[in-house]
Write a structure and sequence with these properties.
The structure holds two protein chains of two kinds.
Chain A: H1 3-17, H2 23-39, H3 43-54, H4 64-79, H5 83-96, H6 101-113, H7 117-130, H8 135-147, H9 151-163, H10 168-181, H11 185-198, H12 225-230, H13 241-248, H14 271-279, E1 283-290, E2 293-302, E3 308-311, E4 321-326, E5 329-332, E6 334-339, E7 344-348, E8 371-376, E9 384-396, E10 399-404, E11 416-419, E12 424-432, E13 439-443, H15 444-449
Chain B: H1 6-16, H2 19-23, H3 25-40, H4 44-56, H5 65-80, H6 84-97, H7 102-114, H8 118-131, H9 136-148, H10 152-165, H11 169-182, H12 186-198, E1 217-219
Helix pairs in contact in B: 1-4, 3-4, 3-8, 3-10, 5-6, 5-7, 6-7, 7-8, 7-9, 8-9, 9-10, 9-12, 10-11, 10-12, 11-12
The chains are: A alpha+beta, B mainly alpha.
């Protein structure tokens, strides 16, 4: 009711203000207004802004037949999960006929699949300018906002997807699926909020859990906090259980720490298996917390029997608190030393251990060609093991690196790069975005040269040593 | 108006004060070059000022517009048959008969570019742009000419004007992104990348070969939203 007079006034204002604005900004304004109206459960305003979009000048059509041929190629590639090839095909289709809303929508969806959210958003908004009642584009836009941590706008876009769906029951089912299984908190929250808005009496899925293939910590975002407080999703982001316990008992000693589990027995002659089994309990998952929520994760390695853990500085860069899990044991951690060049941090934990990884100070051309093994937690996949060779030695901004061919991904940062003799030759740190397997580890000798760690502590706990 | 850039206006006023000079071809080229430089510097007001100067110029008189149009059609037919030499001759004649024929000038530039005659292509396209400075297609042709001559600065300026005057900016944006990510020629690719950044448009953070030394390292930490591994992953 209250929007009856506000909306026309706003529209008049916008039509004046938008005179000098870019085309996209105008589209975006109306789309955002439709989202805000959907969040406010104000269907009259949704309709008003939809009409504004409908009344915009139509885009000049291109060669529809040629575009359809590119589009079909894109669909084939999309079906095979070949997103880059699909992008190339849909892009050609879009350039050939930019007035086709289906093509623009599929280009947006492909960008979303490639996690290129800004491009995906722009194309989704453009699609909605062409066809404001296209439910699929609203659904895509909702996922984009959810993936980028904006639960409110995700909920509004999802609600519009439902509003304009040809088959609302099917769309509601899609939202239920997203609400139950999507790996991103804000997508799930947005979908559930939209369901609550459009079907107030509907039975919502149980509180979502992580997919079993994805044990990573998930982010919470400031914008979702109110929603999380009022729904079953108000629990902490789904951290691994052990880490949750470690965090909540941060002021108390952890029982598990007093009884470290021994490494699994090493019986194989295969060097990879031998290294994996020995190094796994000494390789750590590091989860950072910021503003009370999990924020980032990386890897680390236990370098002393009294619980010192080495990692990259950029892993812990913005953390308020740190939780570390090495093998089956977990602890909170404090920063003892950190620096940007080299990008390293040394953490103290309560993870006393009978064993620790040994830093190998060798740094010469003889290393090139030697086998290396990398352990870490790429994208939260704990204990991921990969192999490769030392491809070269590089000095970057005065820091010595070892270039390796072993695959590493976000989440590997701070993890050990191990030689076949079990010693650590580097700390996995970064990779080139282009090319393949052009990855870099800070040389272990750099850790010592920079004073981060006294190699005297890198030894096994003496049998008669301290407890 | 206070935010108009002074140098562009002063220059424009100085040139306008000498009508005979301002109306000749060289001054038009100067304005076009200024539009490129101002665009590469992201100086919107400078671009618009130069555009206005060009638009104020009287159109050149046509000797025989009907015959020029006939030659234009002949040139287009030759182009469709991929006969660049015949097209070149036809477009040259069309431009001679009617120097104000934008289509003819633009296509003449296109054919010169196809034939690798950069200087002639540049002149023809500048002529087309002096007649219609908002013609995005001509700016795009000109960007390619500069790109192929390894002039990244001017290619960037011309691409920025392509985007500025595009009828469908979203389409132009995708074209720029396509060039920035896939074009084989380094200069044009880098110019497209620079244009996208100039316009603050999103683009994949890719560096294509040749790589700058130690460029674009990616820290191996997991951002806020970890990816779900592909289903086919082992």
């Amino acid at each position: 009711m209250k929007a009856r007079w506000v909306v026309p006034a706003l529209l008049a204002l916008v039509s004046m203000a938008a005179t000098g604005a870019g085309q996209y900004e105008k589209f975006d304004y109306y789309v955002q207004q439709m989202i805000a109206a959907a969040v406010a459960k104000d269907p009259a305003s949704v309709q008003t802004f939809r009409e504004q979009l409908d009344n915009l000048p139509r885009q000049e059509p291109g060669d529809a037949a040629q575009a359809q041929s590119f589009r079909q190629r894109g669909l084939d590639q999309l079906a095979g999960n070949n997103f880059k090839e699909a992008l190339a095909a849909f892009r050609q289709a879009f350039i050939t006929d930019p007035a086709n809303a289906d093509i623009a929508g599929q280009l947006s969806l492909t960008y979303l699949r490639l996690r290129r959210f800004k491009e995906a958003e722009r194309l989704a908004v453009y699609t909605l300018a062409l066809a404001p009642g296209q439910s699929a584009a609203w659904l895509t836009l909702g996922q984009i906002y959810g993936q980028t941590g904006d639960a409110r706008r995700a909920a509004g876009a999802f609600a519009n997807a439902y509003r304009f769906a040809q088959d609302p029951a099917q769309l509601a089912e899609q939202l239920r699926q997203l609400g139950a299984t999507d790996t991103v908190d804000t997508v799930r929250i947005g979908a559930l909020q939209a369901l609550q808005a459009v079907q107030p009496g509907s039975v919502l899925p149980d509180p979502p859990t992580l997919a079993p293939t994805h044990p990573a910590a998930h982010p919470g975002t400031g914008s979702t906090a109110p929603a999380m407080a009022t729904t079953p999703l108000s629990a902490n982001p789904p951290l691994p259980d052990a880490l949750k316990r470690g965090l909540t008992t941060s002021s108390q000693p952890l029982a598990a720490n007093s009884a470290p589990k021994p490494s699994p027995p090493v019986s194989s002659d295969n060097p990879g298996q031998r290294i994996y089994r020995r190094s796994l309990p000494l390789t750590c998952l590091i989860v950072t917390f910021r503003n009370g929520k999990s924020d980032n994760l990386g890897s680390g390695l236990l370098v002393s029997v009294d619980g010192l853990v080495l990692t990259n500085d950029h892993v812990i860069e913005k953390a308020d608190n740190l939780a570390v899990k090495c093998g089956d044991r977990e602890s909170v951690a404090k920063v003892i030393r950190r620096g940007k060049a080299p990008d390293l941090a040394l953490l103290s934990t309560t993870l006393n251990s009978a064993d620790s990884l040994t830093l190998n100070q060798t740094y010469n051309q003889d290393l090139v060609g030697r086998d290396v093994f990398v352990l870490g937690n790429p994208y939260g996949l704990e204990g991921t093991f990969s192999t490769g060779v030392i491809s070269g030695l590089r000095a970057i901004d005065g820091v010595r690196y070892i270039q390796i061919s072993a695959p590493i991904s976000p989440g590997n940062s701070g993890g050990p790069v191990i030689l076949s003799d079990g010693t650590v030759i580097g700390i996995a740190t970064m990779g080139l975005k282009v090319g393949q397997n052009l990855n870099f580890a800070i040389a272990a000798t750099e850790v010592i040269a920079a004073g981060f760690f006294d190699p005297g502590r890198t030894k096994n706990l003496p049998s008669k040593g301290k407890p | 108006m206070t935010h108009l850039r002074k140098p562009a206006w002063l220059l424009a006023m100085w040139l306008a004060a000498i009508p005979a000079f301002a109306q000749n071809l060289e001054s038009n080229r100067f304005y076009v070059q200024q539009m490129i430089e101002r665009a590469a510097a992201n100086d919107e007001h400078g671009v618009v000022a130069m555009q206005r100067m060009l638009e104020q110029n009287p159109r050149p008189a046509a000797a025989d517009p009907a015959a020029a149009n006939a030659m234009l059609q002949a040139g287009l037919a030759a182009l469709r048959q991929d006969d660049s030499n015949a097209a070149l001759t036809a477009f040259q004649q069309a431009v001679q008969m009617d120097p104000g024929n934008i289509e003819a000038a633009n296509h003449l530039g296109l054919v010169y570019r196809k034939l690798g005659q950069w200087t002639e292509a540049e002149r023809a396209l500048q002529q087309a742009l002096s007649l219609e400075p908002t013609r995005a297609v001509a700016w795009f042709q000109l960007a390619q000419v500069y790109g192929l001559q390894n002039d990244v600065q001017r290619a960037t300026g011309a691409l920025a004007n392509t985007y500025r005057y595009a009828q469908n900016p979203m389409r132009a944006e995708e074209i720029l992104r396509n060039i920035a990510e896939n074009e084989a020629a380094d200069t044009l690719r880098n110019a497209a990348l620079a244009t996208l950044r100039l316009q603050q448009l999103p683009v994949a953070d890719l560096i294509m070969p040749p790589l700058a030394p130690n460029s674009d390292m990616m820290p191996m930490t997991t951002p806020a939203n970890p990816l779900r591994p592909p289903r086919s992953a082992p």
